[in-house]
Amino acid sequence: MKRMTIVQAINNALDIMMAEDERVFLLGEDIGHMGGDFGVTRGLWEKYGDERVRDTPLSEAAIIGTAVGAAMVGMRPVPEIMFSDFLGTCYDQIVNNAAKMHYMFDGQFKSPIVIRTATGGGFGGGPHHSQSVEGWFMNVPGLVIVAPATPADAKGLMISSIENDNPILFLEHKALYRVRGDVDESKYSTPLRKAAISREGTDVTVVASMKMVHESLAAAAELAEEGISVEVIDLRTLRPWDEETVFASVRKTGRAVVANEAPKMGGLGADVSAAISEECFSALKAPVRRVCGLDAPIPFSVSLEKLILPGKDDVKQAIKAALA
Amino acid sequence: MKRMTIVQAINNALDIMMAEDERVFLLGEDIGHMGGDFGVTRGLWEKYGDERVRDTPLSEAAIIGTAVGAAMVGMRPVPEIMFSDFLGTCYDQIVNNAAKMHYMFDGQFKSPIVIRTATGGGFGGGPHHSQSVEGWFMNVPGLVIVAPATPADAKGLMISSIENDNPILFLEHKALYRVRGDVDESKYSTPLRKAAISREGTDVTVVASMKMVHESLAAAAELAEEGISVEVIDLRTLRPWDEETVFASVRKTGRAVVANEAPKMGGLGADVSAAISEECFSALKAPVRRVCGLDAPIPFSVSLEKLILPGKDDVKQAIKAALA
Amino acid sequence: MDVLLDLYRDMWVVRAFELGLEREFKKGNVPGMLHTGLGQEAVQAAIAQSLRHTDAFFPDHRCHGLLVLAGTPGEKIMAELFGKATGVCSGKGGSLHSADPSVGNFGDNAVEGSMMATALGVALAYKMQKRDDLAAVIVGDGTSGRGEWHESLNLAATWKLPVLYCCVNNGYAISTAVGKAHATENLYEFACAYKMPSIQVDGNDIVAAHKATEEAVDHIRKGNGPFFIEYKTWRWQGIFSGEFRPDDEVHYWREEHEPIKLAQQHLISSGIADAAQLEQIKAEVEAQVEDWITFAKDSPAPDPAKATSNVYVGWEIAAR
Amino acid sequence: MDVLLDLYRDMWVVRAFELGLEREFKKGNVPGMLHTGLGQEAVQAAIAQSLRHTDAFFPDHRCHGLLVLAGTPGEKIMAELFGKATGVCSGKGGSLHSADPSVGNFGDNAVEGSMMATALGVALAYKMQKRDDLAAVIVGDGTSGRGEWHESLNLAATWKLPVLYCCVNNGYAISTAVGKAHATENLYEFACAYKMPSIQVDGNDIVAAHKATEEAVDHIRKGNGPFFIEYKTWRWQGIFSGEFRPDDEVHYWREEHEPIKLAQQHLISSGIADAAQLEQIKAEVEAQVEDWITFAKDSPAPDPAKATSNVYVGWEIAAR
Ligand SMILES: Cc1ncc(C[n+]2csc(CCOP(=O)(O)OP(=O)(O)O)c2C)c(N)n1
Ligand SMILES: Cc1ncc(C[n+]2csc(CCOP(=O)(O)OP(=O)(O)O)c2C)c(N)n1
Ligand SMILES: [Mg+2]
Ligand SMILES: [Mg+2]
Q1: What's the predicted TM-score (pTM) here?
Q2: What are the structural domains of chain C?
Q3: C-alpha distance from C180 to closest chain D C-alpha (Å)
């Protein structure tokens, strides 16, 4: 066990997989010598060289297309899109190419790529560097969305993702990059499609993802002092998400809050909330509440940004409303 | 009043707006001489010429970018993207440019564009010509999504859209293009953000869009014979959608089914269903059910496509389940 | 046997396949949309001839004949276009997505131009895997409008990837003339910006098209990086079979400069074959195509289970 | 007064603005990310000089100084970068999105390259509106990797739109050298593919940069369509202020070929000004910039109501 940040944990996972499997290679902007905008690939270029840690021009569509093509013939590419906001420039490649190929050619090709990208707000990045984009991709069959909240999960999920045969969008929340935790230095994997129960509780279930897992845990800790027992679920895989774990928890607690950073309308939380209400109808003692960003772009000014993004207090308030 | 198809109704709306307002112009692939892949712009090139009905290369990103730029300086562009599946190639322009500009420059610019596009399945178009894409855009603040189901609405909504100051994605369902209805030949507008009650009923509310409005009306007609009274709501504006009308209806009937063609997970229906369950919790006598496409791309084979897309019988079944 | 005679037969495979398909389409037996390769037989024959099974190629929407020439049994391509269980993709892909990796057919991407990026990845992988195979991508003139065009050419040139760009310039994108939509009518000029070797060739002259393709492939296999060929040609199909092009243009391409006629003249005048031999080749191919059509017609619709299979690798999706 | 003396002052506006900003950024007073225009003063001065308020320009992420030269009061730009209520966009845009339509500043799009498409639309509209104004778009060398680059150049050339492409080739995209990521190091060559007039100019030589820009603007205003200028220059800022470029390269650009020094030498040797005059200009500008910084610092944070205003035109969004 070693204390690591999420940056280091992902770096460690990439290192392990590259050492073990020649087919794994990285491509993206400034991931080589520079080690990526956030340092996630630091040291890998020195170790694995230009061919396997490949700097690209600002050609996001070609980055994804290249990854897909290489994956079709047996490679295991891990492309990086520097900020998730830029995924709009390669949306077609992800949605119409990577995610549909296996189906439309009836299984003759696979597209095992892991698209790493830095996502989320909270650092004054402004409207084009702060978005949470999972909602853009939630309605895309064939695509997997993975989003860790802890260093240990970041490593294990990255390893699982590289070993998985599906195209995966791997979301790395910028505000969590420096979060530290204990990480096993050997190779291990964390299952996809399996949520984690980050905190057990009996009064209400909070279903969260990424940074909102931490906000929810903080809310739960404070509410525990008021005698409220909150169960916090970290979805980890956002598409397809783990209905079994979520429904079991809600059936136990009878109350649910869904927390994610992106705007409420049409976001991840809509799907989770709708599914809970449909499937746990008779168990529900209160309406499912969504804690999300406001329906606006992310402004540059930090004080305004705070008003748009949801936080611990919003989770607390929703939990209290659910219990009222 | 004149009998028109949706194709003719939209054509008529464009004609009226172009005649009346010099700032309105069209651009897209083969919309001129040829009148568009589906004939929606037929005759307009002859009438308004090359400058205002502008054929473009296969440059979808530039089509939208051009529209946005022109809109910033006072024009009213109506760009066409031939098939909605191709919106992935200009996703960035729509999401990061058109939809955010008004906000990020704090009101100094507007982006009044109406992106017309043919959407939906049911004609053997295969995986890249058959998708329903509203789910790709439901989580995008600043964007408006309009989707008519009848000729009269198609005309009135197109006129409202061109007159509106926001960027609008205007979805034209291919399977509805030839649907006929009575259309007033003079200029009129149909309000945005206002759903239509397509059929009144008391037992259950069906909230539908585009082709699923017709499937739902057919289901309602058949169920009426069994003594079941179904209220069918046509959302018309999908983002932001008309909560007031929907909630009022569900509070009246106590039961709701949400019907849309795209895959269930992360689709429009998720948002509508979640919002109903949250806001009408105490009025609900049964869980809200979603009738959607299966979580797969659209296959080419017509027999397989039928299995993926939802239809009248699926709506009927969901209604019966809600009443059981 | 002379390679030109092979190529002549190949051109007839494209011609007969498309004529048969068009006939069935008009009868309502072929679902969806249809773009035919009629008029572009020499281009397709030339490309197919120069590739080998270990190469990868990305066909465009008019390449049905080429898919057969690449080595897939004709009936399996035909059945795919009919949406049948016996098709190469079990009817899930159709005309626009009929892949067959066993012969290097990587399938069309109906979002025109997007596969130009995919081809980069295949070429890069082949290079990393130390194979001397290449990735060919077949794209129309209209497709040169797409941003991926630039991203692809730039990276292929910068990374010296084994990509063969086959640009089929038939003068139009649907109804839009090349010159109306692009800064040049000679698309090989675009390649110059990337310092990529490029050539424009008469795509209706099988001898010239074949020679150019062979040279390009040879250049690439020697490790010199990408090559760009612009084939000047013309398609019979106008706008959804309607005609909108000037009469003299139609006359030139369909009569004077028609690829099969040109090939016949060449074969006969150079003494490689006589008229009777050529007639026999045509008849044989036509008969074959009719068999494929019959096979496709008689084939069953896909198994309903196919509707939901292979969405994810290894995972099932939820039923309704 | 000689235009070169104006340009000299303008270069100092860029320099002093960025130095002041960088200082405050390091102190933690400026939120978010920061890309400075240090080293590119001549390019910015030249571009600003040739445009007029009725033109449109799309600045890149290093153009803070240019925004001021365009005519927006310096304190309003500075305040925007501090995220304050008094900024041009009330603090909602920040460094990457500081628009001011009153002087033709159409704002940066931080998705690099995407505004190359937007510029087309402005140029098209101006043409349709029979104005003889133009749309200038300022993009870095790295941005030439984007597909929008091609879509934009192709359409501007085909439609003969009044677009001025100002390509600021400072040799790197973040840490990636031009030649590593592109098929050519001389990006004006890309423009040749579109038969668009283009020129490469020493972007650190204010005389040359000014002349080239004037000529290009003149060409466009006469209705001849787009023009492409590649300014060869260099930015002081390495990777997030770290240095990774070879010593001799750093020395050349920061010492020998530094734009303000070059301008000084020229002004003095040609007798346009003496050292004292130049020193005074510098001192005046520096004092001004400090005022702007003070203004920005003293300004209030944006009104909370701004967080949710102007998402839609005319419609409110839901509260939490
Ligand atoms: C990105 C994209 N835009 C538009 C279309 C619709 N479309 C299909 S074929 C075609 C014309 C293509 O022209 P070209 O590349 O010259 O091929 P041709 O049909 O002439 O062989 C268009 C516009 C598409 N499939 N993909
Ligand atoms: C589409 C896109 N990809 C990547 C980035 C991240 N990014 C910001 S600046 C930059 C480098 C741009 O290089 P260049 O255009 O040469 O400008 P310079 O910073 O050198 O002035 C990159 C990769 C971005 N903003 N947008
Ligand atoms: Mg063509
Ligand atoms: Mg640069």
Answers
A1: 0.98
A2: 2-299 (3.40.50.970)
A3: 7
